[in-house]
Amino acid sequence: MSTPLKINKSGRITSRMTGRMNSMENHPCFSEKAHDKFGRIHLPVAPACNIQCRYCIRKYDCANESRPGVSSRVFTVQEARERVSMLVERNEKISVIGIAGPGDPLANDATFEVLNSINREFPDLILCLSTNGLYLPDRLEDIVRAGVRSLTITINAVLPETGTEIYSWINYRGKKYTGTDAAEYLFANQWRGLRNAIDAGLIVKINSVFIPGVNDEEIPLIACLAGDKGADLMNIIPLIPQAEFSHLQRPTREMIHALREECGKYIPQMTHCKQCRADACGTIGEDRDMELEMLNARIGEEYCEMV
Ligand code: CLF
Ligand code: SF4
To answer: Over the stretch 46-83, which tens digit does the pLDDT of each residue have?
Structure first.
């Protein structure tokens, strides 16, 4: 069941579709026009992951690297709530609260506690999740109930054989899988989750990590399938050579540009991604240190109490 365009008697687009359009227009990642007008806060409440990508190194005490999978520390649910309350009031540009790790949001129950709580307190903020998709079919109802409006699924391959080169293992419903079994479960859930999320009215982006010599030939196929199923946007992310892929080259700008050109035939391409940290805060590319922002907010409050 796809989301119908709902138009009322006076010709106005209503309900869920208006929500979708607002979410797209005011989201700094989904809309290039919005990327310097609006900002986002990533809440690092999700340290655990349910799969192992061969390019991933997670760090929970890292101040000086700027890439996905790192954060200064992991927040408790209470800390995450406090930060949103304080920082949103001080920064009118924040339109999105996202959970993007440092692990997989759907492998951590704290994700849902935080989302439910923020949705109750700030229903106008766009809630955003980024996931590998393994648990998407299982948790979609919870995601929708928590008020999430935008979703990113990282899909790196279509063929299970390619999947074995990218993923060491997955852990699904208490069982560990490796090889093509792991890839088959993961891919089936990613595509099913994608279709269900679109049907549920979420705006959906696909992230694909461009791993030269491993999945470059499959990325256009991902673009074609995702576009065909109704995903809104694709973000081709150049590999950061590390972990088991430390011997590979990061793709050049020209390589990325050529692949985006090809994939753009099937689905709109994102070109302004900055591969953010799991605790990013502010506008894309002009991140602030969230702890420093909190300190300033507290000093400001104390000053107001004194005068
Ligand atoms: Fe964060 Fe991702 Fe939501 Fe954006 S980031 S969870 S969709 S609010 Fe954006 Fe950062 Fe690129 Fe991600 S620039 S890494 S695409
Ligand atoms: Fe790392 Fe994300 Fe892959 Fe998990 S899904 S291993 S957090 S890159």
So the answer is: 999 999 999 998 878 777 788 888 888 899 999 999 99
CA atoms of 176 and 51, how far apart (whole Å): 9
- Cα of 15 from ligand 1 centre, angstroms: 25
Instruction: State whether residue 177 is helix, strand or coil.
Output: strand
The alpha-carbon radius of gyration of the chain (Å, integer) is: 19
Tell which phi-psi region holds residue 21, choosing left (phi > 0), alpha (psi between -120 and 50) or beta.
Answer: alpha
Q: Which domains does the chain have, with CATH numbers?
A: 11-298 (3.20.20.70)
CA angle 4, 9, 13 (to 5 degrees): 40
Could you read off the pLDDT of 249-286 as tens digits, one per residue? 999 999 999 999 999 999 999 999 999 888 888 888 77
The overall pTM is greater than 0.85: yes
**Residue 222 alpha carbon to ligand 2 centre in Å:** 19
Q: Which ligand is nearest to the CA of 277?
A: 1
Say if CB 218 and CB 208 are below 8 A apart. Answer: no
Residue 6, pLDDT above cutoff 80 = no
Q: How many CA atoms lie within 13 A of 45 on its CB side?
A: 26
CA distance 171 to 167: 11
